[in-house]
Amino acid sequence: MTAGSDTVLELLPMVFAAPGEALARAEEVLGDRPPALHASVAHQVIGIWQRDFGDMRLALSHLRRARAWAARADSAEREADVLATLGVALVHAGRTRQGMDALRRGVERGTGHTRARVLFRRAYAWWVLGHHKEALDDVRRAIPVLRQAEDVIWTARALTLRATVHLALGAVERADADFTAAEALWDTTGQEHDKADAVESRGLAAFRSGDIPAALRLLDEAEERYAKLGTPTFMLNIRRCEVLMAAGLPAEALAEADAAIRALDGIGGQSTRKAELLLAAARAARLADDPQTAIARAALAVRLFAGQRRAWWEAHARLVLIEARHAAGRGSGRLVADAAAVAEKLVALGAPAAPEASLLAGRIALDLGWTADAERHLAVAARSRRVGPPLARMTGWAAQALRARAAGSPRGVLEACRRGLDVLDDHRMTLGASELRARATAQGAELAALAQRASLASGGPRRLLVWSERWRATALSAPPTRPPADPALLSGMTAYREIAARAEEARQEGKPVPALEREQRRLEREIRSRTLHMRGAAPDGGDRFDVARLLARLDDSGGGQLVALAVLDGRVQVLLCGQGRVRRFEAGPLAAAETEAEHVQAGLRRLAHPGAQARLPVVEAAGRRLEELLLGPAAAHLGDGPVVIVPPGRLHRVPWALLPSLRERVLSVSPSASSWLRARETAPPPGGRQVLVRGPGLATGGAEVPELADRYGGATVLEYDDASVPRVLAELDGAALAHIAAHGAFRADGPLFSSLRMTDGPLIVHDFERLDRSPYRIILSCCDTARFATVGADELLGLVTALLPLGTAGVVACSAPVNDAAVVPLMLALHKGIDAGLSLAESLRDARATLPSDALHRATGWAFTAFGAA
C-alpha cells in the first residue's frame, strides 16, 4: 500500500475485522513517508492494536503521534477521532483524569457523525469506570446520529455497549433486545473481531439470565473466533471466570484469572483489565476456600481501582476483600461497618450485588451477637429473595433464614431454607452435565446446614432425616442429559481413546510420553467443555423424599435397617431407620473418622501384597475405632437384618465391611436414602441378558470370565478385539447383569475421566452417560472402581455414581487396590450367590465367608462393597 492510496482510511475498520493484517498494512504506510492525514490514521491503527492486544506504553506513544499528525493535517474531525481513541487508552492505562479530559476535548472538536463516534467512545470509558448513568446518556445521544448516517458498524457497537451497560444494572430484557439488534447488523458486515465480541456479549447475557450452559458455549465459541484472529481475550477471561464460579468451579476460575494476569503483565497490557482480573481472581480464591489469596488479590484490586477512579469496581473489590477477611476469621465491629458502607455504595451505584454486601454485614453482626444490627442488614438483603436470577434469590433466602434463626423461629428457618433450595433445584435442573449439577449444590450448603440445625433443635430425628436427604446426592436424583450426537464430541472421544491407548502402550515399553500426554489433556479439555454446554430438562419437581415410604420398603426387605449419617457442627449424627421409626444417636468427630479411614485404606493397600499378615491386627483395630467414631451407640441397635449405610460424601472411602458390627451382615451402601429407594423400586429389564467383559493386561487374565461364561451359558462374552469401547457400550445397554474384569483408574483431577481399560483405550464415565439404560446389575472386579471425588455440598462423582441414575439398581465395586489373584475366587463365589437368586449384598456377604482366612483374602473381601439395592 502506498501512502497516497485512498484505501488508507479503510485501515480503521479493518483493525476490528482483521487486526493482524491492519497492523501490518499500517506499518507499511508509515514506511512510505505518507502525508500527515495518512500518517495520523496509520499511527492510530497501530495505537488501537497495541491498546487492545499489546503494550499500553507503545499504544499511548502511537496515539499521541496520531494526534500530532492530525493537528498538522489541520483536520478537526481527524483530531477529534484520535482524541477519543487516546482518551480510551489513557483510561485503560489507569490515567482516568487525563483520559476523560481527552474525550471531552474530542466531543468539543467533533461535529455530526464524528462527534457521535466520540460520544460512543466516551460512553465506553464511562462503562469501564463504572459510571453507568453517564454511559447510557452518551450512548443514547450517539445512536440516533449513527443510525441516520447509516453507519452500520458504529451503530452495532453502540447497541452492544448499551446492552452491556443494561446487564451491569440488571436490566436483562433491555440488554437482550439491544444484543439482538446489534447481531442483526453485524451479520451484514465483515467485522470479524466485532462479531466475536458480539458472541462474547451474548454469553454474558446468557449468564446474567441464569443460563450457564449457554454462557459457557457462547464464550467458547467467541474464544475460537478470537483465536482465528490471533487476538488476546482478557475481557473474555474475566467473563468466563464469572461463569465458572457460578458453575461451582472456583479453582478453575482462579487458575484462568492468574494465567491471564501473567499474560497481560508479559505484554504490558491494560491496567484496567489487570484490576478486573485481580478482582475475578479474588472472588475465585474466596469461593475456593483460600481466603489469604483472596485477601491479597482483592487488596491489590482495590488499590488499582481507587487509583483509576473507578468507584463501581472499587466497591465490588472492597466487598470481596471484606468477605475474605471474614472467611479468615477476622470478624469485628469495624468489618460490619465496612460491609454496611459497601452495601450503601453499591445501592447508590445501582449494582445488583448490593444484597450480597447487606447479607455479609448481617452475617458478621450475628457472629458478634449484635442481633439488632444483624436484623437491619439482613432485612435489606432479604428483599432480593423474590426477584432476579437464581443465585441472587438464593442470597435473599439465606438472609431470611438467618433472620429467622436470630429471632428463634425454627419454622421460619426451615421455610426460608426450603424456598431457597427450591430455587437452586430449579437452577440445577437447567444444567445438563452431571458435574455441573453436583458442583452447583455448593451454593446451597449454608441453607442445608441451617435447616439441619433447626431440625435438630425443633423436632425429632425424622425431620433431621428429611433435611439431610434434601441436599444429599441430589445430582443422582435424575439422569444427566444424554450427550448429543455431536460429531465433534464423538470424534474427540474416539481420538482421546486412541491417544490414551498409545500413551499407555508407550509407558509399558518405557518410552517417553510427554507429547501424548499433552494431546490427551487437550482432548480432555475439549470433551469436558462440550459436555458442560449441555442444557438440562425443564424442572419437574421430582419425587419428594417420604420417610414413611422408606420405612415401609425397609420392612419389605426383611426387616432391615438404614443407617443415615449426618454431620452437624463437625460431629456424626446417626439416624437409624427401621421397624417403623427413626432414632438418633450421636457418634464421634467427623475429622477423626476421616483420619482413621485414611489409615484403614493404607492398611488395605499393604494387605493386598503377600507377606503382610502381621498388619492384619492393626487394620482390624482401626476398624473397631472407626465403628466407634461412625456408629457409636447405634451399633448395639442394628438388629439381625440387612443394613444399608448412607454416608456423607467425605466418608465414601470407608470399607464398611471391616467394621465389626457389619462384618457378617448383608450390607449395602447408598449415596442417599432416596437413591436406595429408587434402586429398590427399579424393575429388572426383560430378557435377563448377561454380558461378560475381559479387558487387557490383567495379572490373572480375567481368569473368572471363562468360568462365568460356562456358568451362564448364553452370556455375551467380550474379550480380545471384541472388548472395544463401542462394542462394550452396545452390549451393556439394557443388560440385566454385567461383569467387567478390566483395569480401573480413578482420576481425582477429573473424576468423569475415571476409566476401565478396554482393548482400544479407556471406557470413561462420559461414555457410560451415553447409555439409554445402564445394566440393572453390574460387577466391577478391578481396583479403585468405587472411588469418588467429593464435590459441591455432599455430592460424589465417579464410575458408580454415573451408573446409578441411568437404571442400575446394584453395583459391586472396589474402593482400594486389591490382589488380582485373590479377586478371582471372590468373584466366582459372588456369582454363585447371584445364580442362586440372592441379591448382590447377600451374595457378597456369603462370598467373603468362603475365602481363606489369611490377611490377603480377608482384605480383598473388605475392599469390595455392594451399592444400591439389587
TrEMBL record:
InterPro entries: CHAT_dom, TPR-like_helical_dom_sf, TPR_rpt. Pfam families: CHAT. Transmembrane segments: none annotated. Residues 621-868 form the CHAT domain. This is CHAT domain-containing protein. It comes from Streptomyces virens.
